[in-house]
Design goal:
By secondary structure, the protein is α+β, with helices and mostly antiparallel strands. 18% of the residues lie in helices and 38% in strands. The longest helix is centred in the first third of the chain and has 13 residues.
Length: 287
């Protein structure tokens, strides 16, 4: 007899950074053998998803940060580089802000445009602020928030490597992401474990993330396709909040705060990804 499960169809509603969700009941398909890449211990499946996705090389990524910021871009997951354009949405859309972000391993650049001007420390001649994730996030926080919560996590694509530290993994059910069937798991990221389990070449970026955000246990949800690749990754916007899990769709932390979420949706694996850092003469250095 099949196992009943819930399937939700999940897709970002344009620049609104809001997730359109419809729910249907599916019988079967959640238990049994399932795709080979998703068989076995759920923690091992999610941990392996990092390497499977990074092996795809490149992808396009849509990003939403809470309900007030959304962006799109491209990442070279193997190189740990990416470029993105963000703009304010929802209640913040009237500010008219947009932000360009370039990531190259453990170094990042951000440029702000809008009525409030550029990022502090930049000028018309040097519109980009560059530096290590921690310094860039701190220097630009007042101008770019909540984008600073993303900047302190190097490469955005590096978020995939966080999954190597997946603990307390709980299968949630089948869903669709941008029309692709996927399986959702709730988990906590043990960043120290992720660093230990990653190849030596990828550890410096993860170490930079740990210096920026601390050795937290980070609540997350991930959606994997039938090849075991990440199609969507949802993380608490602020990893310092006291919570143990996103509890599927419950958006209140254990200490009663609203749990803002950062969502990354990966698609078009293998797409062309030309990522060029801003020229030095256009860059001001973050202190």
């Amino acid at each position: 007899m099949g196992v009943a499960c819930v399937r939700r169809e999940v897709a970002p509603a344009g620049w609104l950074g809001v997730w359109a969700v419809s729910t249907v009941l599916v019988v079967g398909g959640c238990g049994g053998a399932g795709p080979a890449a998703l068989r076995g211990d759920p923690a091992a499946v999610v941990q392996a998803a990092a390497g499977r996705t990074i092996a795809a090389g490149t992808a396009r990524v849509d990003v939403s940060v809470g309900s007030d910021l959304a962006g799109t871009g491209v990442v070279d997951m193997a190189a740990g580089s990416g470029r993105f354009t963000f703009q304010r949405t929802g209640a913040s859309a009237h500010l008219g802000d947009s932000f360009d972000v370039v990531v190259d391993g453990g170094r990042e650049w951000v440029k702000a445009k809008g009525a409030a001007g550029g990022v502090p420390g930049t000028s018309a001649a040097r519109p980009w602020l560059g530096g290590a994730p921690a310094s860039l996030g701190a220097a630009g926080r007042a101008r770019v928030a909540p984008l600073d919560t993303v900047l302190v996590r190097p490469a955005l694509g590096t978020d995939l490597a966080f999954l190597r530290g997946a603990t307390k993994v709980r299968p949630y059910g089948g869903e669709e992401v941008r029309g692709v069937g996927a399986y959702r798991y709730s988990l906590e990221v043990d960043l120290a474990a992720a660093i230990k389990a990653s190849p030596a070449a990828q550890r410096p970026d993860l170490e930079a993330a740990r210096r920026s955000i601390g050795a937290v246990r980070w609540p997350a949800d991930v959606w994997l396709d039938d090849r075991g690749r990440v199609r969507s990754l949802q993380l608490a916007e602020d990893p310092q909040l006291h919570t143990t899990t996103t509890k599927a769709n419950l958006l209140i932390t254990e200490d009663g705060n609203v749990l803002g979420l950062t969502n990354l949706v990966f698609f078009d694996f293998g797409t062309a990804a030309v990522i060029t850092p801003p020229a030095p003469e256009l860059t001001a250095e973050a202190a």
